[in-house]
Amino acid sequence: MQERRYSICPFCGLGCGFYLATVNGEVTGVDYAMDHPFNEGALCSKGNTSFEVIQRHDRLFEPMMRVENDFKAVSWEDALATIASRLKEIKEEHGAQSIGIFASAKATNEENYLVQKFARKVLETGNVDNGMRLCHAPSMLAFTESFGLPYPTGLLEDLEYADCILIIGCNPFENAPVLARRILRARETGAKIIVADPRRTRTSWHSDFYLPIYPGTDIQLIKAFIQTILQSKLERKEFLRERVENLDGLERLAVDSSPEIVSSRVGIEAEYIRKVALTFALADRASIVFGNGLTQHVNGTEAVGWLVNLALITGNVGRRGTGVFPLLDQCNMMGASDMGALPEFQPGYAQAEHKGLTLIEMVEAAHSEKMKAIFIIGINPIGSFPDTSFVKEALTKLDLLIVQDIFMTETAKLADFVLPTACWAETEGTFTSTGRRLQKLSRAVEPPGAALEGWRIIAKLADQLGKGEIFRYDSWEEIFKEIVTNVRNYEGLTIDDVSRIGGVITPKDRGQLYEDKFETKNGRAKWQRTTHATNIERESLPFTLISGKILHHHGTGSMTRKIGFAMQETGEPFLEISEEDLGALGIRSGDEVYVRSGLGEIRVKTKVARIKPKVVFLPFHFPDSSPNNLIPNNLDQASKTPELKGIPVSISKAK
Ligand code: SF4
User: Fold this and answer.
1) Is pTM, for the whole model, over 0.90?
2) Is the C-beta atom of 6 inside 6 A of ligand 1?
3) Distance from residue 500's CA to the centre of ligand 1 (Å)
4) Looking at 326, 348, 365, which one is the last position of a domain?
5) What does the pLDDT look like over 562-593, one tens digit per residue?
6) Could you tell me the CA-to-CA distances from 222 to 165, 295, 306, 373 in Å, in that order?
7) Which tens digits make up the pLDDT trace of 216-269?
8) Residue 30 in contact with residue 41, Cβ under 8 Å?
9) Is the CB of 10 under 6 A from ligand 1?
10) What separation in Å is there between the alpha carbon of 608 and the centre of ligand 1?
11) Ligand 1 atom index nearest CA of 14
12) CB-count exposure of residue 559 (10 Å: 0-12, 13-18, 19+)
């Protein structure tokens, strides 16, 4: 029997909708949802091929327990009973704070809501966090401080109404390609596109102004924009006077951040910086789109704060075609955070009573043997956290490591228990997109073997730990109803709302936030002036490494390395390097090199690219040559997000 079930892309955070086509319970392909209000039927290569991940022969089919150096299949009853008894022992002996949970930005809201409830009400630990920490915790914190909510300020689809778009620290034409359609529409109607990135990417090809800045100089660039705007008296005085506070000292910016002062550091001519700043300031409706290139630095929160300031000083918040938009990396990163799978926030961003540890802090605590048990759900720290050897050592020291996933990831191989879970196409529940679109997933096919829906695993484990009475759910709808009574901004949403194609915008029907007032206590936005200490000792090495994503792959590659098309297009890693640097090293594009930092070395093929000299780029989708092997564990002190960009390395020809 042929059927089609509505689904949502499991990769980036844009929330593109489509149908999964099935024949007799087997997934056969995708069909396009032309009436979807965001993606209008369009999908990038990842969305188009996502169905290949579902019915793979190498999915996890049954729970497994480590026996010496191997795994043995066990029943769910045995696995959960043993895990529960070991968690109880650890809690009694070492206390609740010796246990932590990594929640999944790829799992549904319903699963994440139960995960944080399980952490707080069953284990009684504050140590719960999700993948938001690795990339956009700076955005969440800076937005909340300035605007009162952690969300992008408008609708992503309204980018096409902008007169000017600043794209900084991201490459949407490769990493969020469906959004690129909206940017192109804006450009077709005359919008000016500004791209700041050390690499010449597909996004930069479509720019009117390209700023090849040095990695980590975003703050200087944005401050120079603001200085130019102040010097030219183009700040929106009325907007600042009526809607913004904390503006003391604004005039000092006009003195110490001129384009001339920052030019050599940023790597752009002062006059060009000034020209671009004036283009942005003179636009009636300007938007800012940014990504990990800006946030994954030791001053990531401060950098987002300056982007917020740029939007405020030009009055570009609260109107269609204006706003500030972080591009989140995973399909339900926004939702996992809204559900309170965070150490500092409970559901709906209510302050946690006792702040727990973040992802990287939990790994550090495991390494120092303070953390004794970690339950990792749908996240692959061996591929995504800095200093891979340190992470491996830390996880190996744990008394109990539980990994719940759909494949045997590099992290799962280290576990004491591996729990097989349903993927996005085998469960029901909701995802919340980067653009605040809350949508329902349909179950297209049954989970493989004994794999269970994630929320059912959590509820069963809670039952084993004696808290079954607060985890009695028969369906995802029952959890959803609890969510809409407990999560700020989800109030009043119904199953009908989320079940429509494209779902519903949260807060309900408020596409444009902050039209009249901000969500802060006094309704005014806060100008950000915090400077976070960045006293990091860095090695002095000749190249600067930036890591990132490429067109057909996603995350640590645990799913896209299983997709034929992705591997056919890019089946192996490469180091992007400028022609000038290849010449200086005496090698040709395609030759192999060693890339070394103080932590270690990797061997990888080179690929000539239009990238700033002395800057190299390495994708992080391939574990054997993951840049994280080379990246030390330096954190943004405000958000505890790791610095994954701008790492000093040396490069030499491989023998
Ligand atoms: S743009 Fe993002 S959400 Fe849309 S199809 Fe591609 S990976 Fe999926």
Assistant:
1) yes
2) no
3) 19
4) 326
5) 888 888 988 899 999 999 999 999 999 999 99
6) 14, 14, 7, 43
7) 999 999 999 999 999 999 999 999 999 999 998 787 776 678 999 999 999 999
8) no
9) no
10) 27
11) 3
12) buried
